[in-house]
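Subgroup meeting minutes
Present: P.N., E.W., G.H.
Scribe: E.W.

1. P.N. recapped why we're keeping a running log of single-chain structure predictions: easier to compare across weeks, and new members can see raw inputs and outputs side by side.
2. G.H. added today's entry (641 aa).
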Amino acid sequence: MRNKRLFCGLLFLLSALQSYCAVDMKDTIHIPLVEVISPRISFYSEGNKQEQFTVKQLKTFDINSLSELLQNETPLQLATYGTAGAQSNLSLRGAGADHTQVNWNGFPITSSTAGSTDLSFVPVAGFNNISIVNNASGALYGSGTFGGALNLDNQASWSDPGFHARLSSGYGSMNSFMGDAAIQYSTQKLQIQSSTFGTSSDGDFKYFDLYRQLEFRRKNASWTNYGTIDNVYYKLGKSSQLDGGIWYQVKDLNLPKIMGSSATTIENQKDSTLKAFVRYKTYGNASGLEIKSAYFYDYQLYTEKETPTSMVYDQYSKIITHQYFLDADYRQFFTADLSFDYGVTLSYVNADVAAYLKRKEETDFAAFLAGKYKTSDFTGNVAIRKEWNTSFSSRFLFSASGIYTLDEDNHWKVRANISQKFNKPTFNELFWVPGGNPDLKPESGYSAETGLVASDVFSSKDNEVDFDVNAYFSDIKNMISWQPAGSIWTPVNYMQVYAKGLELKATEKLPVGAFIINNTASLYINKSTVEETTDQNVDEKGHDVFYMPRYNSLISTQWTLNNTSAGIYYHYTSSRYYNITSKMDPYQLVDFQVGHNFKLAKMDTQLLFRVDNLLDKAYQVVRSYPMPGRTFSLKLGIQFL
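Output recorded in log:
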């Protein structure tokens, strides 16, 4: 009954907002259309450091997973458990993987049971806009953004009507086959985008087992991954649009044994998802309304048995979740410089997990208010949010950000933001039997950052230089940690963590004769430490958070001559603790890539050859999970004109 009243009240509010939006304002205010219809999470993010992947980067990795894109193109920290098909989670700015919110067209896809997102499951080909917002506002995004947010978006482009198609295929080490076929059809009112993708790999490679002091080849490591992402955009009139999308995907992953294991059992994990959303947008001269809804179905099956042909399972564990979302946002411009957003979100999660003993449900309702003031040289944003959950109620969350241009030529800018944060407990932490703790509190705290951005500085007519320097700090209170309680481990609000650091990035574009050289250097310095524990553990106080390196860097140089390009990429990750006294070794990787573009029967064609881990280094990202040595891949991409 309570949920029905909530839905009815929300629908009444949406109807009132839509009616108000249709009323013309007395004074005409000329606002760029993009400002009226831009999603709130991008509209209010100017004061945050953002990383937008280019069309070239997305095209290069269109047959790969998002995990592979991030590993190769950024110095970000990913917890990767082996080959490309193995689980991979992103940690931003010294916070955990459960502190990175991943969104699809504005809806959070982070697992409600595990609290993180497996990026090996996310295909690059399915999205035409991928971005990272560091220190994303808790008031705008909600739970789980101590590190930031990763946004996966599908956007319509009406500038190039007609039919377009792209076909990409590749082959690589470990007998890996990869492919993607994408089409786009557009008229003046209708656009259809579709991407179908698939990968299969044996996943086997030789590695040296540090514990058994022998060389092995991984067994039971094969995997397949396939799916489709489809989107439709339809203009209902001059001032309204209806969008929709479907994401269906299946991954079947065999789990090889870790270093030191002599077990012979066969482990397998199957994941599948069906996600769908619909979105309605309407706008007037100085206002806009967006209403969207989504449904997510996620299925995971883990099995273990003695032999591949055995009909008896030692373990058979299913996780099934259903999630429903409703989101409404109304934007009003009082002047060309001043605007406000008013909105509500509603979500419902239903999880069927054997370890919970019975089906678990959660309803979450939030209301928010955001404002922006924008002039020619300054943009300032503020937002406030309140969230009510079946198990808890968040405090009011406040955020403020701004960016200021220091010179008339728009070369130098400073930015700053501060945001209160929270992170709600996962279903596993609350309900797992044995060990779940229904009395857990949400993690809380705040994050702040400040940065200096420079574009086209120290530049002449021959070269361009940009750089970005950013400092940040996060305070995470009531951080959840699994602790032993007798023979059973249970999650508790155990510690307070400080994460602080400095991020530096410089890029240079330099013509040298007939060559164009693009150089990039990024260095991330982070220190995440345990400040307090509830049991005053002297060994942990002041200690680094496990698996958080102090230094990550990426240095690359790319040389282009006409239609041929080549690049070398150097990655460095420093040592990091995996327990109180022991560290994992640092590692350095070198990758190489060469490509050529040419016309073939009126088709734009690309050949791309890549070598990862060129120096064949042995390393681990997560302890006891070996990573591949030198690997090769060859890709052919065709753009039909």
